[in-house]
Amino acid sequence: MSSQAEPAEIREFARLVSVIRRLRRECPWDREQTIAVTARHVLEEAYEVAEAIRLGDNAELREELGDLLDQVLFVSVIAADESRFSLEDVVREAADKLIRRHPHVYGEVKAETTEQVLANWQKMKRAEKGDTGIAGVGRGLPALMRAQKLGEHARRSGMDWANVREVLAKVREELDEVDAELERGETEAAASEIGDMLLALANAPRFLGHNAEEKLLEACDKFVGRFQAVERLAAARGLDLTRLSPAEVDALWREAKQQGEQ
Length: 262
What we know:
Elements: H1 6-26, H2 28-32, H3 35-55, H4 58-81, H5 87-101, H6 103-106, H7 114-129, H8 143-156, H9 164-183, H10 187-201, H11 212-236, H12 246-261
Helix pairs in contact: 1-4, 3-4, 9-10, 11-12
């Protein structure tokens, strides 16, 4: 980025910080907020940024990035008000960490590939935070995302399936165990086995070069589209979905699916 753009960026950043500090002083709602309360807002805004990225909507992405930045700065201002740390601390430590974790850019370490960069990053992270092992991987993430990160960590440590077919074989094995527990009437054990199956299945997309969270989101969108098509078909024929038999609903579903594939 050119140096000519930097003064404008700094001015706008400072203006936003000033706005947030004023709101914290003068707005009753903003004054009442605590760091604990803001956790939900930070998560919501982060997910909305991710959704805008997935949709490729630049205007939406710009807006959602601003909303997420608002939350980051708002938490930092609250922390400063409570004498925990300052916004300056946050920004300085963020820059310091990036410089420290990129010795191939800011130091003498050689890293010619992405794999070498990631290996160096993990090594420095362990040195800084202590080696918590796999127990520290993905804590705080949604379960699906954590499941994939756990698989990636295990792979770097030398334990993983060889290919996607082995993953699917494990999924089938777990599904058989679900069936066995259901036959015994052990619903709690069956639910636990379903969890094991989901953990394995969450790692299948990465063997195909894809992300489990993104693939599930796409599947959700596909389901929404087909369900809406089923509703339209039912409405056009004067049918009440809640009164149809499973076979009749399935027929509408297959018709909606076929229409979507045309």
